[in-house]
Design a protein that fits this description.
Largest sheet: 9 strands, mixed
Helix content: 40-55%
Radius of gyration: 29 Å
CATH topology of the largest domain: Rossmann fold
Number of helices: 20
CATH superfamily of the largest domain: Vaccinia Virus protein VP39
Length: about 525
């Protein structure tokens, strides 16, 4: 979350674009995030080199984006290769061109650095060029703007090699009214990942990835908890090439998500820009994944003729919030697990499509838990302080496992009341977050069997859920104990009334005497 001086610096950069008559939001996002990516590649390599220097060794070539020696940009023409230009790798690094004058800076970035990061043969960047096909350099005849932005991005506070800066900036820009999208806050992503505990070697996908927050945090979790295993060459290869998958049919989102993955040491994430809800786009992904994490679009709609027919067998609907949960089941292998944020209607609506989806989860799969979250989790402040589109919606996490053979016996419910931030548009940090308690209790579900329905969390037997039309809302099963109130004795109250009447009669008598 961007706050304080960093927020002011981003606002200042945004104002620079406006001052140069670049007011189209998508273009600002395009240009700014690409420059950030270029800088963060250098930040990342600086960190690698600093660590190697501490150990008094040379960094491995495979860890370097900017190799030793000369970079050659090669194009193929009629099956012949020609070298378009050559340049020392060092001249492509942010730290070595950031102080050039305006024309030289624009020339270096446009004609050398951009081709470098879009080069399909550049294995150090991976497949970035695939997701940046529509990107074009936007600073022609705007050297003053480019110089200002590069200078501000070079600020020491902008070195975020261990932080999802790209996602944070995009989240802030979303909250500033740049689009109708809103990003899942990182502390909510962290909670989900801590609960699901991704493991090395598992195939993990987010079919509605946005800035790839779930993918990045899953990778960071594995890097933290299985550090020693990642020293193995085969394990590292799996981590880089065959574990992480994502989908977003928004070109900018796919590009930003890919950049995020690369900057967090996932060298070759598999990201598609074809909607997995539509037609047969998901055919190569079906029954393949150990873990699916998502926060899909709410209130979207998809025409039946475009919808993957397999999903309609689970829930016959046009609503994307239902189709994405059905998609999760289709993507998961038997034994795979999933966690999805859903709006409240998915849990309570008695419509046929809603009911059929909940029956599928409860009767045919294993529904594990429901974490109810408060309104305001997704509230994002605009520059005017109002909430962004989609903010304030009541949501919950659905947690389930694919079995194709049932297995739901009890369902765990938790009522999150405090996520560590105020629930107004400012979202200021506060004490008393429920998140550590949620993770701790989820990891000991056997203990939860002993909790009363008056607690924040408890277990509900599956037959009770069936009897309640598969309603999955926390409040349906919460037991509310009203405080005992001790009332006065009836005779005492009656005596008070008589006394009041007597006083009233006396007052009336005195008034008459005065008259």
């Amino acid at each position: 979350m961007i706050t304080g001086s960093l927020k002011n610096k981003i606002n200042s950069i945004w104002q620079d674009f406006y001052n140069e008559n670049m007011a189209q939001t998508s273009e600002i996002v395009n240009q700014l995030t690409t420059l950030m990516f270029i800088k963060m590649l250098d930040d990342k390599q600086n960190a690698v080199e600093a660590q190697a220097a501490k150990l008094q060794i040379a960094p491995r070539d495979s860890e370097l984006t900017f190799k030793r020696g000369i970079y050659k940009y090669i194009e193929s023409d009629n099956d012949r290769e020609r070298v378009v230009f050559e340049i020392p790798y060092e001249d492509l690094r942010w730290k070595n061109f950031k102080n050039l004058n305006g024309k030289e800076l624009a020339n270096r970035i446009k004609n050398y650095v951009i081709p470098f990061i879009k080069d399909p043969n550049n294995k150090a960047i991976g497949q970035f060029g695939v997701y940046a096909k529509k990107y074009t350099f936007g600073f022609d005849d705007k050297e003053r703007l480019l110089t200002s932005v590069v200078d501000k991005l070079s600020d020491n506070e902008m070195n975020f090699t261990k932080t999802d800066l790209m996602g944070d900036v995009y989240e802030y820009m979303c909250g500033s009214g740049v689009s109708g999208q809103f990003r899942t806050p990182r502390h909510i992503i962290d909670m989900a990942v801590d609960m699901m505990k991704p493991k090395l070697g598992e195939k993990i996908i987010d079919p509605a990835m946005g800035t790839a927050g779930f993918i990045v945090e899953s990778a960071k979790y594995i890097q933290t908890h299985q550090r020693d295993e990642l020293m193995n060459v085969d394990n590292k290869s799996k981590f880089n090439n065959s574990m992480f998958f994502g989908c977003d049919n928004d070109t900018n989102m796919a590009r930003i998500g890919y950049m995020n993955c690369v900057l967090h040491n996932i060298k070759n994430p598999d990201i598609t820009m074809d909607s997995l809800l539509e037609h047969e786009n998901a055919k190569d992904y079906l029954n393949s994944f150990d873990l699916v994490l998502q926060n899909p679009p709410f209130s979207g709609s998809l025409v039946e003729s475009a919808t993957n027919g397999k999903l309609l067998t689970i829930t016959k609907t046009k609503k994307t919030e239902l189709l994405f949960v059905a998609l999760m089941l289709s993507l998961m292998k038997v034994g795979g697990r999933g966690m999805s944020i859903v709006p409240e209607g998915v849990l309570t609506n008695e419509g046929k499509a809603f009911l059929s989806l909940r029956k599928e989860l409860v009767d045919n799969q294993k529904l594990i838990g429901v974490v109810s979250m408060p309104n305001g989790i997704f509230s994002a402040p605009t520059k005017k302080g109002s909430a962004s589109k989609g903010a304030g919606v009541k949501t919950s996490f659905l947690i389930f496992q694919k079995t194709n053979n049932g297995g739901t016996d009890y369902v765990w419910f938790y009522d999150m009341q405090n996520d560590g931030f105020t629930l107004d548009s400012k979202r200021s940090p506060i004490d008393g977050s429920d998140i550590p308690d949620i993770v701790a209790r989820y990891n000991k579900l056997d203990v939860e069997m002993n909790r009363e329905r008056t607690d924040k969390s408890f277990m509900v037997p599956v037959d009770e859920i069936r009897d309640n039309k598969y309603d999955l809302s926390y409040k349906k099963y919460k037991k509310v104990v009203l405080p005992k109130i001790k009332h006065r004795e009836t005779q005492e109250i009656l005596n008070d009334i008589r006394e009041s009447l007597k006083l009233g009669e006396e007052l009336i008598s005195r008034i008459k005497e005065c008259l």
